[in-house]
Q: What sequence folds into this?
């Protein structure tokens, strides 16, 4: 058996290390993809109404609901909209922040819970009681309120049930309202009986769909969720709460869905195949190197074996490295982007010298998301979207206002002031335009100075910031 020349061993070693590195990177990326897929599915699954169906009260049996209430004393009732996915227990905390990311069981959950405004009474006897819940894709939590914007759906889903204090109360849907989350004339749980008529008039004026055929003397229950990709957009579904009905039954939801293959099985199976296939190749190559393969007996027509060529091996290695370099260049010019942050305009979220990783294929970011963009002067900047097309932006002595409502920006540092040589307010954003600000308002040359950012100026949506300096 012909021995491999010693001069080729370093080349083969480097080649093997590159293969191993590529395999490791591929497996890590695949594992991250599987985890992200599983984690997103888990968030939705843990928030679906079917998860809580076991606790749902009925006219005959309240035991399981009482068990849930005993586990969390802040559980106050149950909401059901007939023939929809909205079928959930209700909670009320000491403030309106707790159940944004807390499940009804008291455990941490990004999906949160459907909760009653802390200023309302738990008896739902107020003129206007307001329930809040996340808008999650797949009609999870209050994500299904979108459908009520269609007249046919609205007309077919006008009834529901509110259970509290051991009794079931019929709900009657009479309006769908699109509003700004900072509109305190609508988001007001402290409406008095004397203000009822004015409040109903404001609801009617803001309503997308309104049916005046309801008992206006009954207490109101409003369901509120956010509108995706808007600054402060909210959907309000307005209902009336009727007198209790002893015969009203709250049976468990029947839309549990078919049980198919778990969503994590396909990607996990793919990962297992890659691992097994890669392991087989490594074992086979290792065994061949240790034992060696006997050379076939040359025949009269068999051409002589050429000895391994150092030049050929080096050329193959260089071609592989060139291919990898070309692939990475294409990946980071067409799909992803890397940028070294040049200033402290986004401090403390991102400081000077931090490495910013963005996704170039997403140039339609949502409100409050970070983006890399080129301003009107051609400078590459990092900023946060505060408003999108259709919004009107104003900067007053009070601060930043979107559609007339003062913004509460927990992430912003310093006052939001207008530039003397900047844009003229108010600014109405047209299709494809975004208003982008830096979090560090005193140090940021942003849309207040250079104007709205066009979608074509956006480099990509930021998906990660890597901090190099610990301060």
A:
């Amino acid at each position: 058996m012909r021995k491999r020349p010693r001069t080729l061993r370093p080349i083969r070693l480097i080649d093997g290390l590159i293969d191993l590195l590529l395999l490791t990177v591929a497996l890590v990326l695949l594992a991250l993809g599987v985890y992200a897929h599983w984690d997103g599915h888990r968030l939705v699954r843990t928030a679906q109404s079917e998860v809580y169906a076991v606790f749902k009260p009925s006219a005959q049996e309240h035991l399981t609901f009482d068990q849930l209430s005993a586990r969390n004393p802040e559980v106050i009732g149950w909401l059901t909209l007939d023939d929809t996915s909205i079928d959930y227990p209700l909670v009320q905390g000491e403030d309106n922040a707790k159940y944004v990311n807390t499940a009804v069981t008291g455990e941490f959950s990004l999906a949160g819970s459907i909760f009653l405004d802390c200023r309302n009474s738990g008896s739902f006897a107020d003129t206007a009681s307001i329930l809040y819940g996340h808008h999650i894709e797949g009609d999870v939590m209050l994500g299904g309120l979108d459908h009520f914007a269609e007249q046919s759906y609205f007309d077919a889903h006008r009834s529901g049930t509110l259970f509290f204090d051991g009794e079931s109360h019929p709900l009657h849907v009479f309006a769908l309202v699109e509003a700004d989350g900072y509109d305190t004339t609508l988001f007001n749980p402290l409406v008095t009986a004397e203000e009822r008529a004015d409040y109903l008039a404001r609801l009617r004026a803001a309503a997308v769909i309104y049916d005046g055929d309801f008992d206006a003397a009954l207490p109101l229950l409003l369901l509120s969720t956010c509108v995706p990709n808007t600054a402060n957009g909210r959907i309000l579904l307005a209902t009336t709460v009727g007198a209790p009905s002893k015969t009203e039954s709250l049976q468990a939801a029947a839309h549990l869905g078919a049980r198919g293959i778990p969503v994590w099985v396909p990607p996990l199976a793919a990962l297992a195949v890659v691992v097994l296939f890669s392991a087989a190749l490594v074992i086979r190559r290792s065994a061949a190197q240790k034992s060696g393969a006997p050379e076939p007996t040359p025949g009269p027509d068999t051409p002589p074996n050429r000895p391994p060529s150092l030049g050929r091996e080096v050329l193959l290695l260089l071609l592989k490295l060139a291919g990898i370099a070309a692939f990475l260049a294409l990946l980071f010019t067409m799909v992803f982007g890397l940028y070294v942050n040049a200033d402290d305009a986004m401090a403390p979220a991102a400081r000077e010298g931090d490495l910013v990783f963005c996704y170039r294929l997403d140039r339609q970011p949502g409100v409050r998301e970070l983006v890399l963009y080129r301003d009107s002067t051609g400078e590459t900047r990092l900023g946060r979207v505060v408003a999108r097309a259709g919004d009107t932006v104003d900067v007053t002595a009070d601060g930043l206002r979107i559609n007339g409502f003062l913004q509460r920006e927990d992430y912003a540092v310093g006052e939001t002031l207008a530039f003397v040589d900047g844009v003229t307010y108010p600014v109405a954003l047209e299709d494809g335009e975004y208003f982008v600000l830096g979090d560090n308002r005193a140090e940021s040359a942003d849309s207040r100075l250079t104007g709205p950012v066009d979608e074509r100026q956006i480099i990509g949506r930021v998906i990660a910031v890597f901090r190099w300096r610990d301060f």
Observations:
- The chain has three domains: 1-47+263-290, 57-241, 337-466.
- The two ends are 61 Å apart (CA to CA).
- Residues 1-47+263-290 form one domain.
- Residues 12 and 313 are 8 Å apart (CA to CA).
